[in-house]
Amino acid sequence: MQKNVSKTQNGVKINFLGSVAKQNIVTMVQNCATGQCECMSDDTKAKIKDMQVEGSDGNVELSLEGDVSVEEIQAALEKSKVLN
To answer: b or e along 43-76 (b: 16 or more beta carbons within 10 Å of the residue's beta carbon)?
Structure first.
Protein backbone atom coordinates (compact mmCIF):
# COMPACT_ATOMS: atom_id res chain seq x y z
CA MET A 1 0.00 0.00 0.00
CA GLN A 2 1.22 3.44 -0.91
CA LYS A 3 0.48 6.37 1.45
CA ASN A 4 0.85 9.90 0.11
CA VAL A 5 0.55 12.59 2.79
CA SER A 6 0.21 16.22 1.76
CA LYS A 7 -0.60 19.55 3.38
CA THR A 8 -3.88 21.20 2.44
CA GLN A 9 -5.33 24.62 3.18
CA ASN A 10 -7.39 23.15 6.05
CA GLY A 11 -5.09 20.40 7.34
CA VAL A 12 -3.63 17.23 5.85
CA LYS A 13 -4.77 14.80 3.16
CA ILE A 14 -3.71 11.17 2.89
CA ASN A 15 -4.15 9.17 -0.31
CA PHE A 16 -4.00 5.40 0.19
CA LEU A 17 -3.33 3.59 -3.08
CA GLY A 18 -2.95 -0.07 -3.96
CA SER A 19 -4.06 -2.89 -1.70
CA VAL A 20 -6.17 -0.83 0.69
CA ALA A 21 -9.74 -1.56 1.76
CA LYS A 22 -11.86 1.53 2.39
CA GLN A 23 -13.35 -0.20 5.44
CA ASN A 24 -9.90 -0.41 7.06
CA ILE A 25 -9.50 3.36 6.77
CA VAL A 26 -13.03 3.90 8.12
CA THR A 27 -12.17 1.62 11.07
CA MET A 28 -8.97 3.59 11.71
CA VAL A 29 -10.92 6.88 11.72
CA GLN A 30 -13.58 5.44 14.05
CA ASN A 31 -10.88 4.24 16.45
CA CYS A 32 -9.32 7.70 16.47
CA ALA A 33 -12.66 9.44 16.94
CA THR A 34 -13.52 7.27 19.95
CA GLY A 35 -10.06 7.46 21.53
CA GLN A 36 -9.28 3.79 20.87
CA CYS A 37 -6.18 4.41 18.78
CA GLU A 38 -2.66 4.64 20.14
CA CYS A 39 -1.04 5.96 16.98
CA MET A 40 -1.37 9.69 17.73
CA SER A 41 -0.32 11.74 20.69
CA ASP A 42 -3.09 13.45 22.65
CA ASP A 43 -1.74 16.78 21.37
CA THR A 44 -2.16 15.67 17.75
CA LYS A 45 -5.65 14.26 18.40
CA ALA A 46 -6.71 17.56 19.97
CA LYS A 47 -5.68 19.47 16.83
CA ILE A 48 -7.92 17.44 14.50
CA LYS A 49 -11.34 19.02 14.07
CA ASP A 50 -12.80 16.66 11.45
CA MET A 51 -11.94 13.50 9.49
CA GLN A 52 -13.53 12.55 6.16
CA VAL A 53 -13.03 9.30 4.20
CA GLU A 54 -13.78 9.22 0.46
CA GLY A 55 -13.06 6.93 -2.45
CA SER A 56 -13.18 3.16 -2.82
CA ASP A 57 -11.01 0.08 -2.29
CA GLY A 58 -7.63 0.65 -3.89
CA ASN A 59 -7.93 4.45 -3.88
CA VAL A 60 -9.02 5.93 -0.55
CA GLU A 61 -8.60 9.55 0.53
CA LEU A 62 -8.60 10.64 4.16
CA SER A 63 -8.87 14.37 4.84
CA LEU A 64 -7.95 15.65 8.30
CA GLU A 65 -9.06 19.16 9.15
CA GLY A 66 -7.07 21.02 11.78
CA ASP A 67 -3.67 22.47 12.60
CA VAL A 68 -1.72 19.22 12.08
CA SER A 69 1.55 18.76 10.23
CA VAL A 70 2.44 16.24 7.56
CA GLU A 71 5.17 14.92 9.88
CA GLU A 72 2.73 14.29 12.75
CA ILE A 73 0.41 12.34 10.46
CA GLN A 74 3.23 10.34 8.85
CA ALA A 75 4.41 9.31 12.34
CA ALA A 76 0.87 8.29 13.30
CA LEU A 77 0.47 6.19 10.15
CA GLU A 78 3.66 4.29 10.99
CA LYS A 79 2.22 3.39 14.42
CA SER A 80 -1.30 2.47 13.23
CA LYS A 81 -2.22 -1.11 14.12
CA VAL A 82 -5.03 -1.08 11.55
CA LEU A 83 -2.62 -0.34 8.69
CA ASN A 84 0.48 -2.25 9.78
So the answer is: ebbebbeebebeeeeeebbbbbbeebeeebbeeb
